[in-house]
Amino acid sequence: MSAFEIYNYLKKFDLLRNAPKYWWPAAGTFEVVVGAVLTQNTTWKNVEKSLQNLEGHLTLDTFLELSEDDLKQRIRSSGFYNQKAPRLLMLARAIQEEFGTFEHFQQLAERSWLLARKGIGKESADAILCYGCFRPVMVIDAYTKRVLKQFDIIYKEYDEYKAFLEGGIEREWYLLRNEYENNPTLFYARFHGMFVEYAKNRKKF
Prior knowledge:
Elements: H1 3-11, H2 30-38, H3 44-53, H4 60-63, H5 68-74, H6 81-99, H7 102-108, H8 111-115, H9 122-132, H10 142-150, H11 158-176, H12 184-200
Helix pairs in contact: 2-3, 2-9, 5-6, 6-7, 10-12
């Protein structure tokens, strides 16, 4: 089964009818960077509690006003807060030092730069690039792999999954571009969202 056929299969369930345009809440903001790290090894429900506790501190500048101890307390619901807090602060400082503003980071950040940061793996890097920086990349997570396994599509490496989905869609993009405003980032954001929502609600289908 091709990536395009899988897309058409997921599309028929209208999985994102009540979702934000780019599926991820607060897409295009520094909040995505925070959420992408917090969601590691936990559920989004737990991340939402942490983000609520961080209200007023979800821009690059206001986030850096937090002490490490304060941040740990605010993100406790997301688990592994002793690791996540210092890593988030290091990442935020690196963004500020290298790019100055979050807007410049959005324009200039590369995947290799993100992967060089402690605590940022391929999934987190792609989530930041897609949802935070509006880059046309597909995010591969456990939900994506679970759904693909349903179609007997199993790879060993993250980048193999990514190549399968991105390569398959690029070949068929001419059939999708009008529906997605000729914006491949919008497509990949929603395509990933479809995988997640389908996996979470699979028993209904």
